[in-house]
Design a protein that fits this description.
688 residues, alpha+beta, six-stranded antiparallel beta sheet, 22 helices, 41% helix
């Protein structure tokens, strides 16, 4: 897409949406390629070519939506951004259909197994099951590899059209060292590509392909295709090993048989009818829990789009101006960068998009949605990107009224549309086909009509249509007949770097905000036998404070977190634990009677929190709440510790419990989003 005065396709591009996606891409590039957890606005200005005022407004809106974090001038990706990639994964149906097969293969072969889909001239991973060793071999979900440097690539390229090959050669000419692929080491010197073309012919003949250390020295892989009911390759199953275990020939000999035995069942799973999934059901459930917790005890004004489950903190104002003010190449003389720069939709794609989207509505549904309705900005956030809204409501419009002209409602609407595409209609892979050539790929698995998207987002049909056209043009979605579906390129929006986050990585930003709010130290612990073990801690700065380090263990019976964790066990497990405990008095306040301890734990289960007053140590008082995973299991406990001299036990409960509950709800929502389609990344794991 170009910002120059070229006649726009159909209803024209949605500028703020395009700019917002450009900022998210650049944030992801800096995180993945340069390992930068946070960046400054100037980095985004240089990387996108957008004016500083535009970047400021985009970032402010993305923060309101909960998709980026702001700490002073430091900007980072927020876990909630993964819900966009989760929408693609849900719509594709691949993790649900093929994940169990990948798990079984990984267990049987004792090697890492992944599932990949074609994405333009590259290969993107959508399922990953890793064997954990000292030398771990795995790709992240969302990683994009050059087709010529991995084993699935030749399989996909065997179905490329002439236009696909031309696009691949143009990409190679423009980036001969593969610097645009942060998941792989750059080449030392350009490669002619002739070897890849030969490998494609071999893959078409053999029905499988290999990677003999093409990505990096020591890595070998074998891939086989999985086809849809029409016979086209839908995806590839990939087994990865290391030359310390296999050379490419021995790996091929070891895995081709088991892979071939599983492929028919995999293809049957893809062809089986699928029920319409709830859009990110786990995230929505946790969001509802978070909203409930926040409504019980709001600790601070919550910015729009964050609600109770985005990054905590006060709302930051955005620069004033209209939705499209300051954009375009004319802003500060810059030219925004983007893969679609320089043109609109190809004629055939434009026709398909028109067919799917229909003509702009001129009836009642085309009127500004949500007019005459009022709602808090936080409530609008839950409806717009965290939950559902009634038909006819436009949460972005409501938020703009609350937050002012600096809020880019076109960006909010466009991202809500992208997220809504995860709610695909009931279908099977065999009932759909790829659109736009083999190079698109990965977008099979049903779709949504314009009407369904408008209903899911609360937008007027004409408004939803404009966002859909922009998403098609930028390669994030495709149209097929009257339906519309997300493409694997959606995963480039932060998914791979965020997929690396572990439990404590997810929890700590929320804990830091809790400490800033209550001015007391906060900790996270898990049950480890008869003890609790600290896995994360954020101290406060005081002359007198509680000094505890990561890895510290205390007896569960005498701590608030221990009692919350015991309360989270089922009745049988709790009875077994209490039968084995031998409480001893750590202070004159410690509960040492097992029957009394059982009653205390029961009360913690009923009340959803535990307060311990000087039972572990004289002068130390702590309050804890449970942290649950997406299935509702208690997997950790969050607490705040304070000195007993700072008020009564009841005053501490009244002052700290609302903030604790709201923080736990935010952590739970992020856990649900991050683990919706795969296990958490490296770091402390809970609930496994």
């Amino acid at each position: 897409m170009s910002f120059s005065p070229v006649p726009p396709p159909v209803n024209g591009p949605v500028g703020p949406l395009e700019r917002g996606l450009a900022v998210l891409r650049e944030l992801t590039r800096l995180a993945a390629q340069e390992g930068r957890a946070t960046v400054r606005p100037g980095d985004l200005v240089r990387g996108t070519g957008l004016a500083r005022s535009v970047v400021d407004r985009v970032v402010a809106t993305l923060e309101q939506l909960g998709y980026v974090t702001l700490d002073g001038r430091d900007i980072g990706l927020a876990v909630r951004l993964m819900e966009l990639g989760n929408a693609y994964l849900a719509a594709s149906g691949l993790p649900a259909a093929l994940g169990p097969f990948a798990e079984r293969l990984a267990d049987g072969l004792d090697e890492s197994v992944s599932v990949a889909v074609p994405d333009g001239g590259g290969v993107r991973f959508v399922v990953q099951v890793t064997r954990r060793r000292t030398m771990s071999l795995a790709f992240r979900i969302g990683d994009l590899l050059p087709a010529e440097r991995c084993s699935p690539g030749p399989l996909f390229a065997a179905e490329w059209s002439g236009a696909d090959w031309a696009a691949w050669r143009a990409r190679r000419a423009g980036d001969p060292l593969d610097t645009a692929f942060p998941a792989v080491p750059p080449r030392h010197r350009p490669d002619s590509g002739a070897d890849f073309e030969a490998r494609v012919k071999e893959a078409a003949h053999d029905g499988w392909a290999t990677d003999d250390q093409l990505i990096e020295p020591g890595l070998v892989a074998v891939s086989v295709p999985v086809r849809d009911a029409s016979g086209r390759i839908a995806c590839a199953v990939n087994v990865v090993s290391h030359t310390s275990r296999h050379d490419v020939d021995s790996l091929r000999a070891a895995v081709l048989g088991p892979l071939g035995a599983e492929v028919p069942a995999m293809e049957a799973a893809l062809a089986a009818p699928r029920r319409r999934p709830a859009v990110l059901a786990a995230s929505t459930a946790s969001a509802a829990s978070a909203a409930s917790a926040a409504s019980v005890a709001p600790v601070a004004p919550v910015p729009w789009g964050v609600g109770a489950f985005g990054p905590a903190g006060s709302a930051r104002g955005a620069p004033s101006g209209g939705d499209d003010a300051g954009g375009g190449a004319g802003a500060a003389g810059t030219t925004p960068l983007g893969p679609a720069a320089g043109g609109g939709l190809p004629a055939a794609d434009e026709t398909r998009a028109e067919s799917a989207l229909g003509a702009p509505s001129s009836g009642p549904s085309a009127q500004p949605a949500g007019s005459g309705r009022t709602r808090s900005a936080a409530g609008a956030a839950s409806a717009a990107v965290g939950g559902t809204s009634a038909v006819g409501e436009d949460p972005a419009r409501m938020a703009k009224r609350e937050l002012g002209a600096g809020f880019l409602q076109s960006l909010a609407r466009g991202l809500a549309v992208l997220r809504a595409l995860g709610g695909v209609e009931a279908t099977s892979w065999g009932e759909t086909r790829a659109v736009g050539g083999a190079g698109q790929g990965g977008g099979l698995g049903g779709g949504m009509t314009l009407t369904a998207v408008a209903e899911a987002t609360g937008l007027a049909r004409a408004t939803a249509r404009r966002s859909l056209l922009t998403l098609v043009e930028l390669g994030y979605a495709e149209a097929d007949g009257r339906t519309f579906r997300p493409l694997p390129r959606v995963l480039e929006l932060g998914y791979a770097p965020l997929a690396e986050l572990g439990f404590t990585d997810i929890a700590q930003p929320h804990m830091r905000e809790l400490v800033r709010t209550v001015h007391e130290s906060a900790s996270l612990a898990v049950l480890d036998g008869g003890d609790i073990r600290y896995i994360a801690r954020v101290p406060t700065v005081r002359i007198m404070s509680v000094n505890i380090t990561i890895g510290t263990r205390f007896p569960a019976y005498a701590t608030s977190m221990g009692r919350v964790l015991l309360a989270g066990l089922d009745a049988d497990a709790r009875a077994v634990h209490l039968a084995d405990v031998r409480p001893r008095p750590l202070t004159r306040h410690t509960v040492t009677s097992v029957p009394e301890l059982a009653r205390v734990v029961e009360r913690a289960a009923a009340e959803g929190h535990a307060l311990v007053d000087q039972e572990l140590e004289e002068g130390l008082r702590s309050l804890a709440v449970p942290v649950r995973d997406a299935r509702g299991r208690v997997v950790a406990a969050l607490n705040v510790a304070t000195h007993a001299g700072r008020g009564t036990a009841e005053s501490v409960r009244g002052e700290l419990l609302p903030a604790l509950r709201a923080t736990a709800a935010r952590i739970e929502a992020d856990l649900a989003t991050a683990s919706a389609h795969h296990a958490l990344g490296a770091g402390e794991r809970v609930g496994a």
